[in-house]
């Protein structure tokens, strides 16, 4: 707004006998103020707000103000959002009669203006005198969960009431139609966004955001634990990829003393084994005897300790027979050190923080199985040429805090990552570092300060070797290798034994199998690095990669949001793009009208930008599985645009050159330029907005 206009507005107020009534009269008679953005009405209103601050005698009180407040209340539900705060301030609506305000909001609600009623309630802080379930139900039906969060944000008691209500709706016997029936004619009603799965996700988000005890929501927690239980049963009895000890650890921590879950466990066990087997597992998992069916209870009485010893021995023999198929640590067991005290850790740092040192770095954490929050690192592995150090991170951090020196461990970790003279090797380092930051807030900027790192995930994308499908055929029953295990197989000849990957890494003491697995995960990085560095040509690696292996790839881009190591993206220098894996060849120029794409759901901004340029775009919805992009691409002849981990999955499901990965950290315009350049799409002036209504 020009200075001249502002001055003219202020002179106008000075001439008015009653500026507050004058502003209302102007807004009521003007159609301009209802538009979005900074309209003339908005400019005049905000200038009056500033003018009143400079002229404290102007604000009115008494009957005259009440009449003005009544008039302005009638306007608030129709005015743009940016006018709400100035008008509430100018007409002192916080001082108005509370019952009158509540009655007005209730009237808005009864008219079906649910969003407007909620926004006004938030602005006037009316929530404590309202029914949270009544106010929030229609908003949830209209997929306005963010507004619901804002509605309860400052009121812990309302947060608890809302969570208890949502948890009641998630009870298996509850008919969710009882909630939706009164709102059948609701405008913008989205029934597909109102189901137990969506509500369950919302509950977990609110529990985390408001730091509320999850015991408040037993139905949602039990259902999540039940899904974990079914997942674990599949791992043990269907896929057969989890060891007995590993499985039992997770079952005990998932089921615990919960009798409802214990009942489900026993019924599930009977589907997978006979009564004797179910009894043995029930005993192993400490299920209450009264929870057992009669046949299982009878078998439990017959069980002797010798039977269990024989079973474990058989399992151990089976494990030993598998070892010859997997990568083995080339260093003696006594060279693996499990560190729980600061004195032991200091000796480790003296060896690790040496100029010219090459260190394999890995981290382990307890699998979250979809629970709230980022995983916290339970074990930090540092591998040198002759020994491996396993740092018990929770114990060391707890010890340092008790001694009033909680910064000393983060200090050493930052020294390691920021020292360009020490080469750090990792696999999916971004994921590891985001978990490290969640474990210790002092390490949140570690990734920005990193130097001298080599992320072998980026290298993995360029190593020539057996495809996962080929390796699966060769080994028959074993699960196809993936991730680091597949890279180890390509480079060193045998895959990693990943049976301990889903261990409970927080449980102490660690089992011997866990210690060997953790040491192998870090040490194999050293062997891969050495092998690729000596002989890159054997794996079809170019000189640019040799440079990165030599430690010149010192800086990494900022981390993307990670859930686990397997989802870690490669560095932006690699970008996972088509040209890296497909031969680049000049293509004939095409127009946007001839170019059809399907955008993965993390690239909706890119999709909308390309549509503005005339490209034929289909967008995946937020809840769609990434694989839906491949279905659409095959059916409609579209190119897939994606980013990060889904690229590896999707490109194998479509023809060569029909899947392209863009850099998620760039803005939509830069992403669009990247796509247009790669596919040689020539945009003319006539194409712009040609698809827009």
From TrEMBL:
CDD domains: mut-7_like_exo
Record keyword Transmembrane present: no
Highest taxon listed in the record's lineage: Eukaryota
Coiled coil: none
GO molecular function: 3'-5' exonuclease activity; nucleic acid binding
Pfam families (alphabetical): DNA_pol_A_exo1, Mut7-C
Basic residues: bias regions: 553-563
Keyword vocabulary terms for this entry: Exonuclease, Hydrolase, Nuclease
Annotated segments matching region Disordered: 544-592
Occurrences of domain 3'-5' exonuclease (ranges): 336-537
Record's compositionally biased regions (Polar residues): 565-575
GO biological process: nucleobase-containing compound metabolic process
InterPro entries per the UniProt record, alphabetical: 3'-5'_exonuclease_dom (IPR002562), Exonuclease_MUT-7-like (IPR052408), Mut-7_DEDDy_dom (IPR037432), Mut7-C_RNAse_dom (IPR002782), RNaseH-like_sf (IPR012337), RNaseH_sf (IPR036397)
Membrane-spanning segments: none
Leader sequence segment: none
Name of the protein: MUT7 Exonuclease
UniProt lineage: Eukaryota, Metazoa, Chordata, Craniata, Vertebrata
């Amino acid at each position: 707004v020009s200075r001249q206009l502002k001055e003219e507005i202020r002179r106008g107020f000075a001439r008015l006998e009653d500026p507050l009534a004058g502003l209302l009269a102007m807004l009521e008679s003007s159609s301009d103020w209802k538009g979005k953005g900074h309209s003339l009405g908005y400019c005049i209103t905000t200038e009056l707000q500033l003018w009143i601050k400079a002229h404290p005698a102007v604000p009115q009180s008494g009957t005259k103000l009440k009449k003005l407040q009544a008039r302005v209340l009638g306007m608030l539900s129709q005015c743009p959002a940016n006018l709400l705060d100035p008008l509430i301030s100018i007409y002192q609506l916080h001082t108005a009669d509370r019952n009158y305000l509540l009655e007005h909001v209730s009237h808005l609600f009864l008219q079906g203006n649910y969003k407007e009623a909620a926004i006004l309630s938030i602005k006037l802080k009316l929530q404590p005198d309202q029914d949270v379930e009544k106010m929030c139900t229609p908003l949830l039906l209209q997929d306005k969960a963010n507004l619901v969060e804002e509605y309860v944000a400052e009121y812990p008691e309302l947060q608890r009431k809302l969570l208890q209500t949502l948890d009641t709706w998630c009870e298996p016997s509850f008919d969710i139609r009882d909630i939706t029936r009164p709102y059948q004619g609701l405008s913008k009603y989205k029934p597909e966004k109102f189901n137990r799965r969506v509500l369950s996700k919302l509950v977990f988000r609110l529990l985390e955001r408001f730091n509320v005890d999850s015991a408040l929501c037993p139905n949602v927690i039990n259902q999540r634990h039940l899904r974990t239980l079914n997942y674990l049963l599949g791992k043990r009895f269907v896929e057969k990829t989890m060891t007995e000890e590993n499985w039992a650890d997770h079952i005990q921590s998932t089921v615990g003393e919960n009798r409802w879950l214990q009942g489900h466990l026993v019924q599930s066990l009977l589907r997978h084994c006979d009564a004797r087997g179910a009894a043995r597992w029930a005993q192993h998992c400490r299920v209450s005897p009264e929870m057992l069916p009669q046949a299982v209870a009878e078998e439990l009485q017959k069980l002797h300790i010798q039977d269990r010893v024989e079973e474990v021995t058989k399992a151990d023999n089976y494990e030993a027979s598998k070892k010859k198929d997997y990568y083995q640590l080339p260093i003696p067991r006594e060279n693996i050190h499990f560190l729980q005290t600061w004195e032991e850790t200091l000796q480790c740092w003296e060896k690790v923080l040496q100029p010219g040192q090459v260190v394999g770095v890995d981290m382990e954490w307890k699998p979250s199985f979809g629970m709230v929050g980022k995983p916290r690192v339970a074990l930090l592995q540092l591998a040198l040429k002759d020994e491996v150090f396993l740092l018990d991170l929770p114990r060391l951090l707890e010890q340092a805090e008790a001694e009033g020196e909680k910064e000393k461990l983060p200090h050493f970790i930052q020294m390691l990552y920021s020292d360009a003279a020490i080469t750090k090797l990792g696999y999916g380092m971004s994921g590891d570092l985001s978990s490290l930051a969640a474990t210790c807030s002092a390490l949140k900027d570690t990734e920005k300060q990193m130097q001298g790192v080599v992320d072998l995930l980026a290298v993995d994308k360029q190593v020539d070797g057996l495809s996962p499908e080929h390796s699966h055929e060769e080994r028959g029953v074993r699960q196809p290798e993936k991730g680091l295990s597949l890279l180890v197989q390509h480079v060193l000849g045998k895959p990693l034994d990943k049976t301990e990957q889903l261990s409970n890494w927080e449980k102490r003491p660690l089992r011997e199998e866990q210690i060997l697995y953790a040491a192998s995960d870090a040490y194999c990085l050293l062997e891969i690095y050495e092998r690729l560095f000596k002989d890159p040509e054997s794996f079809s690696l170019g000189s640019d990669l040799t440079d990165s292996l030599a430690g010149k790839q010192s800086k990494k881009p900022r981390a993307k949001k990670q859930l686990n190591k397997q989802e870690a993206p490669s560095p932006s220098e690699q970008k996972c793009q088509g040209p890296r894996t497909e031969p680049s060849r000049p293509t004939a120029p095409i127009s946007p009208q001839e170019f059809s794409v399907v955008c993965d759901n993390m690239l909706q901004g890119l999709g909308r930008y390309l549509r503005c340029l005339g490209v034929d775009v289909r967008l995946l919805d937020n809840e769609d599985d990434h694989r839906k992009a491949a279905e659409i691409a095959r059916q409609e002849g579209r190119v897939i645009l994606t980013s990060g981990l889904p690229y590896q999955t999707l490109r194998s499901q479509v023809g060569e050159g029909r899947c392209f990965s863009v850099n998620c950290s760039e803005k939509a315009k830069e992403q669009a330029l990247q796509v247009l350049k790669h596919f040689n799409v020539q945009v003319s002036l006539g194409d712009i907005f040609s698809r827009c209504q």
